[in-house]
Amino acid sequence: MTKRESNDLIGSVMVVGGGITGLQSALDLAESGYYVYLVEKSPAVGGVMAQLDKTFPTNDCAM
Amino acid sequence: MEKCIACGICAEKCPAKAVDEFNQGLATRKAAYLPYAQAVPFKYVLDPGRCIYFKKGGRCKACEKFCPAGAINFDEKEEIVKIEVGSIILTGGFRPFDPSRFDNYQYSTLPNVVSSIEFERILSAGGPYAGDVVRLSDQRKARRIAWLQCVGSRDVNRCDNEYCSSVCCMYAIKEAMVAKEHIGDDFVGAIFYMDIRTYGKGFERYLERAKSEGVRFIRSRVHTITQADETGTLKIEYYLEESGKVVEEEFDMVVLSVGMEPAKPAVDLAKNLGIRLNQYNFVDTEDFLPVATSRPGIYVAGLLQGCKDIPQCVMEASAAACASATSLAPSRGQLIKEHVFPKENDVTDEGPRIGVFVCNCGVNIGGFADVPAIAEYAKTLPNVVYVEENLFTCSQDTQEKMVEVIREHALNRLVVAACSPKTHEALFQETIRKAGLNQHLFEMANIRNQCTWVHSDSKETATEKAKDLVRMAIAKASLLEPIPDVVVEIERSALVIGGGVAGMNAALSLADQGFPTTIVEKSSVLGGNARDIKETWGGKDVNKYLSDLVNRVESHPRMEVLLNAEVTGSSGFIGNFETEVLHKGEARIIKHGVGIIATGARASSTDEYLYGKNPRVTRWHELEQDPDKIRNAKAVAFILCVGSRDERRPYCSRLCCTTSITQAIHLKEQKPDMEIFILYRDIRTYGEKEALYRKAREKGIIFIRYTPEKKPIVNEVGDGLEIRVFDPVLQRDLLIKSDFLNLATAIEPSGHEELASYFKLPLDDDRFFVEAHAKLRPVDFANDGLFVCGLAHHPKPIDESITQAMAAASRASVVLSKPSIKISPIVAQIDSDRCIGCGLCAQVCSFGGILMEEIEGKGYRAKNIQASCKGCGLCAASCPQRAVDMLHFRDRQILAAVSAGI
Ligand SMILES: Cc1cc2nc3c(=O)[nH]c(=O)nc-3n(C[C@H](O)[C@H](O)[C@H](O)COP(=O)(O)OP(=O)(O)OC[C@H]3O[C@@H](n4cnc5c(N)ncnc54)[C@H](O)[C@@H]3O)c2cc1C
Ligand code: SF4
Ligand code: SF4
C-alpha cells in the first residue's frame, strides 16, 4: 500500500456479495481508480442470476 | 485454489455424494465439485460438510491422491483478515419465498407442484433433465402447466409479505414461453394472477406476444391444488370471470411463482453494522438518496434494498459505485498500480519464427486425441521452430516456461492448441507480452471445445481434425502483424443534455467527483417535470428537494448551466466530442469527453373522456394543483391507462398507478367523506408501492376494473360528470356520479429524433432511447462515451430517475477517471486509394465508426474512426472495392487459414 492522504480517505471499497449487483459495483469502481475487495461467501460469483435459464425481456441466456 | 486447473479428476474420484443446491436439489453432485459449469472462478472446491475426510477425520483424501496439479490442501484453515476500506457497498442477500409454509398448495407433498426457481432449473439445458420438461412424479413429459402468481407476495394474511416482488409476473411469462419452445405445439399454459404487472421497458409487448402465442391469462386466485390421479396429475379449481362459474382443470405441473424475501445472513450483517431496516427487513433508504443507508459511508444496492429486476439491480449497483466514488474522490487512484510490461521487440523485418504449445488439458484433450502425434506433426509445418506438449498449458509454471522459451528461441509468433480463445486467449496474450512480444502475434487453435469434446467417440477423427486446426492456426500466425495499442486522449469533462431531476443529479455526481460539467437545458428553468410534483410515493417533499438541488447545481464551481439552449449538432467519439449548442441566439462549441442524455418525457394529451372539452376533466397533477376544485367536491374519479397499453403506445407508463393512488389517498385524507373511484386495468404498484394500494382500499377508495374492449363512457350532466363503466366481475354496467375526473395519460418522449441523429443514437418504436443492453448495460449506449438516464429512457418515478442518473454518472466517470484510454486496436483499415466514396460502409456501421470525408477534387472518401470502431467487419464485407481490411483478420490472413484447411 502506498501513502495515505492527509485527509485520511482510503481509496478502497469493500463490496459485499458477488451477484450481478455486486459485480457491477465492483467493476465500475475498479475501472474508475479504486481498489476493490469483493467478498462472496460461496465459492463462485454470479449469485441467483446464474441459476436462471433465460432472462426476460430479451430471453437471452443468463450466463 | 491458484493451482487448480479445473480438470475435474477430484470430482470424478470423490466417493461422497451431496445434494446439488445449484439445481435446487433436483440433482446430486460430489463433495469435491464445481459449483456450476460456467463458475467464476472456474475452480473445484471441497464441501467440508460432505467430505469424508472432514466428517470422519483422517481418511479418504482420494482427491488429493489423484489431483495432477497438487491443488488440494486439507490443512487450509479459515482465517480472519482485517481490511481498511473507505466505504462499503452491501448487495445481494435475498432468498426465494419457501412455499411449503402454505398447506393449500401442498408443495411439500405433491411432486408436480414446483417452485419457479426449480422450474428454471428444469428448463435449463444444463439442469437435471437437460432441458426436458418432465413431471417429477413419473418423469413423463409435462404438457399442461399452470403458474400461480403472488405466492408469498402481496399477502398480509398468510405470510406477512405485503409488498409485490416485482419480477414474478415477468418471469412466469418468460417461463411459459420457454416451456412452449421446449414442449412444442401441445403445450397448454395458464397463468393465474391478480394483476399482471408488466410495467418495465418492453414488458407490455412481451405480454402481448405471450397472449398471441396462446398462453392463457386468467384473473383468479387459486385456493387449492389437489391430486387428480395416482400418476400425479393435478387438478385446480378457479373462478372464470367471463362465465361467472367455478371451473376445474387438470395440469401436469403447477409452478408456484414465489416472491422474494431478504435472507437472514444479509439482514444480520446489516443489523450488525447498525443499519436501519424497514418494516419488511429491507435496508431502508430515502427516495432522494436511493442507495445511501442510514450509516454514512455504507451504501446498498440490489435486492437487499427491495424487490427489483436485473436492469434495476445493475443501475443501483452503478449508482452505489457512484456514491462511493463521490465520497472518496480525493483518494482516487491512491491504491491501484498500473501493470508495466517490457518494451516490445520489433519483429517487422524478421521472418516468422513460430512456437507451438499443444495442451493435453488433463484428459480433456489427451484422453481423446493423440497429442504427441499432433505435436510431432506441428514440427513438420513451415515456420515452426519450437514445439512443446503440456499437461496444462494454462498452468502458472507453463506461463513462466513460455516466457523463457520465447526469449531463448527468439520466437516471434506463438500458437497454442488448447481449449478455447474465449476463456484463455487473454491469459496467453499477457504471457507473450511479458516476453516482449506484441499481444497480437498470438493465435489459438481450438482443439478442445470444438474438437475433442465433439469427437469423443473417435480418437482418430479427433486427432486428424486437431492437426487440421493446428495447421490452419500456424498458416494464419505466419502472416500476423504486431498491432500497436490505440490510445485516445480524454477530454475530462461532461455534457449533460436536459436539466430535469435526472440531468441535474448526473451532472452533480460528476462535478462532485471533480469533472467540469455543462448542463444544456432547452427551457428557461431547471427542474423539468418534477416542478409539478408535490410528493414522492414515499411521501417526501419534492418542491423542497428541487429547490435545494437547483441551488447546488447553480452554485457548483465546476458546473456551467446553459438555459434556453439547444443542441444543434455533434461530432467526435469517446473522450473527444464536439457539440454545437445554440445559447441565447449564439452558437457555441462545447468539447466534452462524455455525454449524458437526460431529455425526459412529458404527459401526452388525449381527446378521450371529454379532456379539453370539459374543465372538470384534468390530467396528472392538474387536479391537485387546484385546491378550489377539491374543496367543494363530493366525488372524484380517476381513469388510468389513458393512451398507455394500447395499439398506439403498447407500453405501460409505469408510474401512473402509483401516482394516482398517492393523489387519491391525499384527497381522502383531506376530506374523508369524499367518494373516490379509481378505474383501472391492472394495478401496477410494484415493490413496496403495494402498501399504498392496500392503504387506499382500507381508506374506502373504490377500485373498479375496466377492460379496453369496454372503456368507460363519460358524459356531462348538470353540474357534474356521469361515468358509465362495465364491471367485469359483476358483469354489468355501473354508473358513477363524479364532480371531477383526473386522467393518467401516457408518458411519451418528445423531440428525441434530432438528438438521436446528431449523436447517432437509436430510438425504439415508442421513441425512447435504446440502451446498449436492456439488462446488463441499462445506462450505456452502444456508442462509447454516451449514456442515458431518467424519462428519456423510459417512464419511471423520481427515485428511480435519480438512481439511473447516478448510474450514468458512474459509467461516465469510468471514462473520465483516466487521462487517456486504450481501446481495442482490432479495427477496420481503409485504403483511400481504392475507396470510391460510395458510402456503403458508413451506412452499414451501427457504431458511427466510419466518417465520409470530403477530399478536394476527389469527392468523398471513407475514414475509420478507431475509437468508435468495434471491429465487427461489416464494412469490410460490404465494400464493393475491397478497400476495407480488418486488422488481425485481414483477407490474406483468413485466406491463408482457409487454404491450409482445405
Ligand atoms: C406527467 C408526469 C407525472 C409524473 N408524476 C410523478 C410522480 O408523481 N412521482 C414521481 O416520483 N415521479 C413522477 N414523474 C416522473 C418524474 O417526473 C421523473 O422521474 C423525474 O422528474 C426525472 O425526470 P427527467 O429529468 O428524466 O426528465 P424531465 O423532468 O422531463 O426533464 C428533462 C429536461 O430536459 C429538457 N430537455 C428536453 N429536451 C431537451 C433538449 N433537446 N435539449 C436540452 N434540454 C432538453 C426539458 O426541458 C426538461 O427540463 C412524473 C412524470 C411525468 C411526465
Ligand atoms: S403482482 Fe407482483 S408479486 Fe404478484 S406475481 Fe406479479 S410481480 Fe409478483
Ligand atoms: S396506469 Fe400507468 S402504470 Fe398503471 S398499468 Fe396503466 S400505464 Fe401502467
Topology:
The complex is a heterodimer of chains A (63) and B (902).
Chain A: E1 12-16, H1 20-31, E2 35-39, E3 54-55, E4 60-61
Chain B: H1 9-13, E1 17-19, E2 28-30, E3 32-33, E4 45-46, H2 52-56, H3 62-66, E5 87-90, E6 94-96, E7 113-115, H4 116-123, E8 144-151, H5 168-183, E9 188-193, H6 203-212, E10 216-219, E11 225-227, E12 234-240, E13 245-251, E14 253-258, E15 260-262, H7 264-272, E16 298-300, H8 310-327, E17 354-359, H9 371-379, E18 384-390, H10 396-408, E19 413-418, H11 421-434, E20 442-446, H12 448-452, H13 459-478, E21 486-489, E22 494-497, H14 501-512, E23 517-520, H15 542-555, E24 559-562, E25 565-573, E26 576-583, E27 586-592, E28 594-597, E29 602-603, E30 617-619, H16 627-632, E31 635-642, H17 656-670, E32 675-680, H18 690-698, E33 702-705, E34 713-717, E35 720-727, E36 732-738, E37 740-745, E38 747-748, H19 752-759, E39 786-788, H20 798-816, E40 820-823, E41 828-830, H21 840-844, E42 850-855, E43 859-864, H22 874-878, E44 884-886, H23 891-901
Parallel strand pairs in B: 5-16, 7-14, 8-9, 8-14, 9-10, 17-18, 17-19, 19-20, 22-23, 22-28, 23-24, 28-39, 30-37, 31-32, 31-37, 32-33
Antiparallel strand pairs in B: 1-2, 3-4, 6-15, 11-12, 12-13, 21-40, 25-26, 26-27, 29-38, 34-35, 35-36, 41-44, 42-43
Helix pairs in contact in B: 4-5, 5-6, 8-20, 9-13, 10-11, 13-23, 14-15, 14-20, 17-18
The complex binds flavin-adenine dinucleotide and iron/sulfur cluster (2 copies).
One iron/sulfur cluster (SF4) binds at residues 149-150, 153-154, 164-169, 195, 197, 257, 259 of chain B.
